[in-house]
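FORM 12-B: Structure-to-Sequence Request
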C-alpha cells in the first residue's frame, strides 16, 4: 500500500505551495488569498462516523480551522503529526469543537474507511472537535492541490528521502477573515496553539491566559537545558517522563535503568536500522505502539544531551534492582 502511495498519491504540482515547511509562513493559493475558497473546495467527504459532509459548506465556512492530510498506514510522518496535534488539542481545551476545528483527511481512502479512521482516532485519544475524513480519491487529490497541501516529489521520494511519501503540512486559517497560513503539523504544540488563537484571529484562550495580577518577583528562573529542549522538541509528542506509562510511545522515566546504555544510544540514533537487523527489543517496541520510532538524525552532541536528560529523570534506584 505504501508503494502505491509513493507512486501515485503525491505526484502533484507544487507551483502554489513553494513556501518552506520548516517555519510558519503566511500562505495562500489564489482561492485562499482572494477569500474565495467556496465552491472551489466544496467536495463531499465522509466522516469517521459515516456522515457525508461538504468540505466548505459544512466544515470550513465561518470557522477557524486546522487541516492536514494523513493516511493510517503511514509509518512515520502521519503518526507523529497526529500525536503532535493531539497535544495542541489538549492545550486548546474545550475551544476545539466550539470555535476552533481540526480536520484530518485521508489520502488513502481505499484503505481508510470510516471504521479504520475511528480506530486510528482511538489510538491517539482524539477528543471532540477533531474530525477524520475519507471520500473519493480524485476529489481528495483535487482538494489537496487547491489548498496547497501537496508534497514536493523531490522531498518525498528517492534515496534518503521521506519513505512515507508525505510531508507534514498543516493549513491554519480563519475563513471569515480569509487569513491563512501554512506550518508543519509536527511543529512545537504551543506555537501551533498560539497561531490558532492569535495570528488567525481566534482571540485569547484560557490555557495561555496569565493570572489577573501576575508577579514574577519570587518566580524560579527558567533553566531549560539542551537535553530538556531537545526532548520537548523531538520526543514529547510520543513520550512522557512521569512514570505513569505511555500510550503513543513508552514512558521514559526509568529508561536509562531498564535499557543498556549502549543499546539505548544505538536505538535513539538509528531505530530503523535496528528494526531492519531484527533486534528483538526494537521489533517488540514497533509491534507494541502505534507510532514507529523514526530516525531523527540525532548527532553525537545532541545524543549526549538527551541521554543526560533521560538519566536525570530516573528516580533513586530501588535496593536490589538491576
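FORM 12-B RESPONSE
SEQUENCE OUT:
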Amino acid at each position: 500500500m505504501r508503494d502505491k502511495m509513493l507512486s501515485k498519491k503525491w505526484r502533484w504540482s507544487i507551483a502554489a505551495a513553494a513556501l518552506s515547511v520548516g517555519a510558519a509562513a503566511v500562505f495562500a493559493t489564489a482561492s485562499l488569498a482572494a477569500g474565495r475558497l467556496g465552491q472551489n473546495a466544496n467536495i463531499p467527504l465522509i466522516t469517521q462516523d459515516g456522515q457525508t459532509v461538504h468540505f466548505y459548506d459544512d466544515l470550513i465556512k465561518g470557522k477557524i480551522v486546522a487541516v492536514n492530510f494523513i493516511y493510517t498506514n503511514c509509518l512515520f510522518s502521519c503518526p507523529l503529526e497526529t500525536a503532535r496535534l493531539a497535544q495542541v488539542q489538549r492545550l486548546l481545551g474545550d475551544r476545539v469543537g466550539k470555535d476552533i476545528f481540526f480536520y484530518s483527511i485521508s489520502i488513502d481512502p481505499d484503505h481508510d474507511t470510516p471504521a479504520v479512521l475511528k480506530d486510528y482516532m482511538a489510538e491517539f485519544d482524539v477528543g471532540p472537535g477533531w474530525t477524520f475524513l475519507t471520500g473519493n480519491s480524485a476529489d481528495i487529490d483535487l482538494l489537496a492541490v487547491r489548498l496547497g497541501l501537496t508534497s514536493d516529489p523531490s522531498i518525498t521520494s528517492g534515496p534518503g528521502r521521506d519513505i512515507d511519501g508525505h510531508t507534514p503540512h498543516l493549513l491554519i486559517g480563519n475563513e471569515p477573515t480569509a487569513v491563512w497560513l501554512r506550518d508543519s503539523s509536527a511543529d512545537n504544540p504551543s506555537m501551533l496553539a498560539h497561531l490558532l488563537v492569535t495570528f488567525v484571529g481566534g482571540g485569547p484562550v484560557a490555557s495561555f491566559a496569565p493570572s489577573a495580577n501576575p508577579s514574577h518577583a519570587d518566580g524560579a528562573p527558567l533553566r531549560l537545558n539542551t537535553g530538556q529542549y531537545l526532548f520537548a522538541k523531538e520526543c514529547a509528542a510520543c513520550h512522557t517522563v512521569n512514570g505513569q506509562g505511555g500510550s503513543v510511545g513508552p514512558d521514559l522515566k526509568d529508561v536509562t535503568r531498564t535499557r543498556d546504555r549502549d543499546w539505548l544510544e544505538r536505538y535513539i540514533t538509528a531505530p530503523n536500522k535496528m528494526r531492519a537487523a531484527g533486534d528483538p527489543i526494537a521489533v517488540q517496541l514497533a509491534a507494541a505502539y502505534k507510532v514507529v520510532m523514526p530516525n531523527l538524525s540525532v548527532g553525537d552532541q545532541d545524543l549526549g544531551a538527551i541521554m543526560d536528560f533521560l538519566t536525570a529523570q530516573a528516580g533513586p534506584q530501588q535496593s536490589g534492582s538491576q
